[in-house]
Each structure stands twice: as C-alpha cells, then as structure tokens.
Amino acid sequence: MNTLRRAVPLLALAALAAAGCMLTSGQFVATYNLPDPFDVSSLAFAGTSVDLNTISEYEDHKDELKRVEDLALVGNFTNRTSTAAQIEVWIVPDGSLTTLTAQQVQANGTRLWGPLAVAGNSTEKVDWDRSSALFVGRQALIDEVKGDGHFALYVIANGAFSVRVTEGTLIVVVGAAI
Amino acid sequence: MKRGWWAVFVGLALLAPAARAGTITILGGVFGGMSFPVLQDDQGQGSLFGARAPVRLLPLLAVEPFYSTSALGDKTIESSPGFEVTREGSDVTTYGVNVMLPFGTKTLLYPYAGIGSAHFERNGQDESFTSYNLGLGLGFTVMPKFALDVRGELQAASSGETSRKMFNVTLGASYSIFSTP
Predict the structure, then answer these.
(1) Do B80 and A36 touch (CB under 8 A)?
(2) What is the ipTM for the molecules in this complex?
(3) pTM of the entire structure?
(4) Which residues in chain B have their CB less than 8 angstroms from residue A127's CB?
(5) Does residue A118 contact residue A89 with C-beta atoms inside 8 Å?
(6) Are B43 and B167 spatial neighbours (Cβ–Cβ below 8 Å)?
(7) pLDDT per position as a tens digit, A57-95
(8) Quick check: is A164 in a domain?
(9) Within chain B, where are the H helices?
C-alpha cells in the first residue's frame, strides 16, 4: 500500500521531468508598428524594413524563444483606385532590401499574406482573427522571427494600384522560457 | 504522446492484480467550472465542462478517465495607440486519465496527477498537445452513492518545448454506478 501511495507523487514528478522546462514557459505578444500611413503604389513601389529587435517584448524573450505560436498582420487597407484590388504582403529575408521592384520581390521573396480583396475606393479593416486566416507563408515569417528578426515587407496589388495601410501592425506571439 | 499512453496502460495492468483483493467502485460524474490561462498573453479566461468516471481500485487508489471541453475567452490588445484588436480564445478539448490518492471516507481529500491529449482550435490554430495535469480535490458524500467535489488543478498542454498552461477550478457531482461486493 505504501508503494501505491507513492505512486501519484512519483507520477507527478515523472510528468514534470518529462515536461522539461515547459512549466517555466509562456506565450508573449510582440507587436511591431508599420509606418503610419504606409503608402505603396505601382508608380512609387517600396518596401519597409522590419527589425523586431527594436521591440522589447521580442528582445526580452529572443534568447529563450522556443516556438512561434501565432502571427497576424492587422490594420486598415485602403484601395485608392477605382478598380478592385487583390492586396498581398510579401517578405524578403534581407531587411535592407527595401527598394526592389515588384518583379524582384516576387522572384526573391515569399508571399506572406493575402490576397485581400478590396473594392475600389474603399477600406477593409483587418482584425486579428481575419488576418490569421490570410497567412499563406507562415513558415517564412517564423524563420525570420527565430532568426535575426530583421526582414523587409512589401505590399503588392494587381495592375496599376495605390494602397494605403494605416494602423498597420505585425503581431507575433512567441512561446518562450521565462 | 504514445509513450505516455503506454505508461498509463502498463500502470493499469500492474494495478489490476492488486485491485482483485479489494472492493472496486465505479462512479460516473460531470463537472463544470472556469479555466484561467497562465502566462498566455493571447487567451482570456473561459468556461470549462466535462465528464469523468472515477474507478476506485483500492481504498487509497483510484484512476479516472476524463473528457473536458473549455472555451477560452477573447483577448484584446492595443496594437497601436488608439487601435485595439481582439483575438478569439481557443476551444480546448482534453481527454485523458488521472491517478488519484483519496484520503478519508465521507469527506475525501485527494491529490491527483494525469496525462492526456489537448486539442486547441480557433481561426489559424488547429493543434494537439500532450496534456499533463496536477491537482487537488475535495469530495463530500452528501447522500448514499452521491458525492460532490471541488477541484483545483494546473493543466499544461506541452508542445515539447513550451506549454500552454491553465489553472482550472471545477465543481462536480458523481454517482456510484457499480460496486463489487
């Protein structure tokens, strides 16, 4: 009987040992604000450099980062032309490359997010839940978050486009030890 | 995950001969309560419901298969000044087995530990984890065959490197449906 009475504490200790450091980990939200407003058009095409190391939530947990739990790109996406636009966001690993052409971005980068359909001269507000469903290149961003945290983002749309992003924010939920 | 289940099955097989000597009681129960995320910036607290079937193998030993479902709450953060965004909470389904050490007769105090599988689902998330839980319960026999209990437990759904942790508080009722002489 004494042996059995020790069973539960031993099972608990075994579970804790099997779990390793998992009890001393948590999920932390890091947010990176894009330039506001972030204007992009087919005539004035440019990306924006994102350096996650400039935000404390990422910097604090970077060394103990184990897992990227969730990603989102939120904000207001305005189509400033009269024709409907299919808006996409692309990622280029080198954060210093912010002056590529759309063709160069599509040749060297990865489509991260979209397409988001926006009618002519209208705005779509994209919240966290909607944004999560629009991610198509999740792994490319995870690699950057777990890598140097420095990359470039480009907004691209079809045809002759003009897009304004306001209150744009990249949200990353990291799983990290504490 | 498979190793965890093997450990449960082997443990039950080893306990079976010992159980032959005593009275075995099987109960059926339901419970409900609250689940509070611990160190999770992207989840809020939510409700928790479930069912369980404690099997008392020996006076001081019980095993308990269980199933629970919780709806964690939404979490709102300010993504930029004056601009708030809300993330829906996950729906969490957990099943597994607890091993319990009951102390007492009409009033029971029982520490317990368990292992199982937890599935988290929401927009952009569809993941399963190995779930560990460790808790303490207090049970009261309010009439023959019928008991109430209150429990507090820490649940950790592990990805191997990190875990999503919840502190669960539940109130339950159980009924003795079978007992050997």
Answers:
(1) yes
(2) 0.78
(3) 0.82
(4) 85-86
(5) no
(6) no
(7) 888 888 888 888 888 889 999 999 999 999 999 999 999
(8) yes
(9) 2-20
